[in-house]
Amino acid sequence: MFGAAPAPTAAPPTENPDAAEAGSGRVNRPLAPRRGRSAAGAGWAPVEAAARLPVYQAATSEVGGLFPLLAANGVPAVGARMGYDTLSGGAFYCHPIEWLLRGLATNPNLVIFGEPGRGKSSTVVAFCLRMMLFGITTLISGDVKGEYTPLLRALGVTPIALGRGSPARLNALDLGPLASRWNGWSLTRQREELTGVLGRWTKLLAALAETQGYAPTVTDEAVLAAVLRRLVGAGDGYTALTPVTIPDVARELADPAEDLWREARFAGRREFLDHTRQITDALSNLVLGPLAGLFDEPTNFTLDFDAPVQSMDLSLLRSRGDQAIAVALTCLGSWSSLITDLQDDGEIRIVVRDEVWRQMRLGLRAVQAVDSDLRLSRAERKIQLLVMHKPSDLLSVGAAGSQEVAIAKDLLALCSTRILLGQSTRVADELATDLALSEREQDVTTGWAMERRGRALWKIESSPGYKVQTVLSPTELAIFDTNAQLRARTGPAT
Ligand SMILES: Nc1ncnc2c1ncn2[C@@H]1O[C@H](COP(=O)(O)OP(=O)(O)O)[C@@H](O)[C@H]1O
Ligand SMILES: [Mg+2]
To answer: Rounded CA gap, 228 and 244, in Å?
Structure first.
């Protein structure tokens, strides 16, 4: 950066022979003659430091130590400039895809840990905003607190709010871009895509049934797949697809056509009904429960894919309880991965899952869904970004020793980059064990990182960890002030 544009005044005095030589077409022309300018206080300087940079002066008795040979960290200067590396003072950049391509990381996923209020969401916002410069778009897959809404508004995007008082409806079994693309595809492509979508839907319905306290069997899943295939009406491969909703599925299960129970190899209608009673009831309850109307009617908005960031604001749902939020996150997760998959515009997307543990508490299938998204991120050109308080959030997804917990713990291994903001000592012990931190790194998260907001230890794979201070611009601070509501309530004093 120094001396990037040599000022005309910096032209070396012509009487100096060294400088005259250097002037002939060299790009990195020195701004000062070899022996410095012969003026009082000028001395030797490769750049016009005094004119461009602040100069600090101190006596050697005051400067504890000076080490001029600091090397920058090995992280390439590409992507989002997050702030500075406090050890070298150099800028710190983050571009998970570049890191992957250059062999620093094995996957593009990130996980952020930190106590509430330490700056997790702000770091996410800074990262997404700065990656936008490279044409990378962001999807906030379920914003439970509505924190990202001001960011969207600042960018001129209207977020989609789901919940009390909002007219927006999202069909959990929405066809997304499939419906409009369908006719342009060859028969083979249609079959392939449809199989993919039906697979997703079956998994989603099974996960939703699990939230109602019933773990579906393989037979249930086979029946669900058959019902969905019939309802969507693409058995012949020629006609257009029919939109399907969860009540349609529940209705078909409660009143099966003869060829359905025959196809599913039941001896008769009665046997079919007896066998599928629980899954039918689970789906029907879902439609009647606190989420009634939200995910079981046709989708009534279109998502603008050219927007730099999109978000589903779930803050209006909070009054309906944790379970409702978790169900909503599951529906959104399934829906957003379906549409982003089909949106084959070749673009890289960041998918933010703030408070991901809420969704994973729903059960094994919800945990598996997150797991498979993380595994596919490389193939699907996505950067999955998980936000958590502490690793034990992952343990809270199920009973000790259960399969859920085993998968959830493995999620950490699927995120090459771990950003560790400040933590209290107790949690830090746990982090140190789960992420194999050295004692020094652990001290960094409990000490140094706690001293200022936005300080974090960035670990890329098993790198030693970079001590980075994220710097927010005044605009970013203003649009992402999560304490604004508290401040407003304390009166006009501030
Ligand atoms: N790097 C930073 N510099 C200055 N203020 C910050 C920084 N990071 C976060 N903050 C402020 O701290 C508050 C809490 O941050 P937030 O990102 O919501 O924390 P978390 O998501 O961890 O709960 C916000 O008001 C934000 O403006
Ligand atoms: Mg937050």
So the answer is: 8
Which helix (H) or strand (E) covers residue 418, if one does?
A: strand 417-421
CA of 231 to the centre of ligand 1 (A): 47
The answer to whether residues 471 and 130 touch, using CB atoms and an 8 Å cutoff, is no
Across 67-178, the runs of DSSP E, i.e. the strands, are: 80-85, 91-94, 110-113, 137-143, 160-161
**pLDDT digits 0-9 by tens, 461-479:** 988 889 999 999 998 898 8
Q: Is the CB of 24 under 6 A from ligand 1?
A: no
Do residues 469 and 488 make contact, with C-beta atoms less than 8 angstroms apart?
Answer: no
> What ligand 1 atom has the least distance to the C-alpha of 116?
23
Answer positive or negative: Cα dihedral of 55, 84, 99, 310.
negative
| Alpha carbon nearest to ligand 1 atom 12, residue | 119
- Residue pair 417/458 in contact (Cβ under 8 Å)? The answer is yes
**Dist. CA 203 → ligand 2 center (Å):** 29
Q: Which atom of ligand 1 is nearest to the CA of 469?
A: 1
CA distance 413 to 305: 31
Domain architecture of the chain: domains with CATH: 80-153+310-320+348-481 (3.40.50.300), 177-288 (no CATH)
The contacts of residue 416 (CB under 8 Å, 6+ apart) are 96, 99, 100, 105, 106, 107, 108, 109, 110, 460, 461
pLDDT digits (tens, 9 = 90+) for 136-167: 999 998 898 888 999 999 999 988 898 888 89
